[in-house]
Predict the structure.
Amino acid sequence: MATFKILISSLSLLLWFPLNAWAITIPKEIVEGDLVFRTGDEPISAIIKSVDSSGFSHVGMIFFQDGEPFIIHATPAEHQERKDGVTVDTLDFFISHAIDQSVTYYHVDATADERKQAVAAALTYVGTPFSIDPDQGTYCTELVVNAWQNAGINITTGSKEIHIPGLKSQIIFPDNVIAADRVIYIGSSDN
């Protein structure tokens, strides 16, 4: 009986131990509106990496809810129960779709009010379909660039023209964002 009580006490202690003790640690400099880049596991990632020199294929914007980090991003095919599009995911989920389970953080040089505006603008896109055709939806880099543009901040150096059968479009790639003057490298997190 005493062994059973010790076992129950040990299990209770493990269940009580805060789950966030295993959570991902983000750099202390990260604030709402900052950017999180990864090399994704989606089929489109290989295509993006073939024309982009940054080494990344995906980006999202971080915001906090009850102290927990979440990512607003436009993504294809990460949720079986949802269509492709702009979604809000936990940072853990975002990282789980990185090929090497690591992400790189970039700070956007902006005021607190500009950050609030950018996050609010990004959240208005939730549910928008994923598409590189501007008439059909939005894609990850376009989402964060437009959100920051809404706050009066330019976080891109431009775009590159791509030709896909049936579509000719200007695309903002990750290297267009990380090369912007107001986007500052913070560091990587290997998990």
